[in-house]
Amino acid sequence: MQSIKLVKRLEGLQTVESIQKKLNIARSTAIKYVHLLRKAGFVETTGGRQQPRFYRISASLSKEIGNPGMYDIINKYSPVKLRAIPTRIIGRRLTVEETLIRAIDSGEFRTILASLALFNHIKDWGLLYKFAKEKMVRRRTGALYDVTRKIIKTKKMDRRIYNKLLQAREKEKYIVKGLKSRDYKDIENRWGLYIPFNKADLLRFKE
Hints:
It is a single chain. The protein has about 210 residues and is mainly alpha-helical. The chain has helices at about 5-10, 15-25, 25-40, 70-75, 95-105, 110-115, 125-135, 140-150, 160-165, 185-190, 200; strands spanning about 10-15, 45-50, 50-55. The two termini are about 40 Å apart. About 35% of the residues are buried.
């Protein structure tokens, strides 16, 4: 179970017993979940020894622990803001390159729209390609780069990387399921997939 989903189900003051009952799990599993959530920064513990032990579980507790997550990084650079979602990264830092690919792979309209601003902050096109290949979103990445170039001034992609993205063979035709563009047919034809945005959507970058 993903940590953030688990936090949402257990938000508030809990004991091991109440977690067992709420999730219908064994005591050992409940203790394991508490340990994992504490490690991720979602748990404050009170009591113990001669007193009952209580766990305050809250998404807001993680804000001071770990490094910025995908939504934090996108909001840092993009004029299109996303709702704050606590997704801190423990033990390492997300690069802009990985953040952009995670956003594209999410398949979420607004997340992808906001993430287009990250194309102007890429430092390593080879690293971007590496993450795009791992997530199998190479053609989607290239197509969104071309769209971004039409609305904001963007760093020029290494031509070798651009060609590798264009030559990639990936079956997925939608960047966002079911959405096609009325305005970017040339890009859709070049990359063989559907752009989810129209010009009106991208005006948010001009506001």
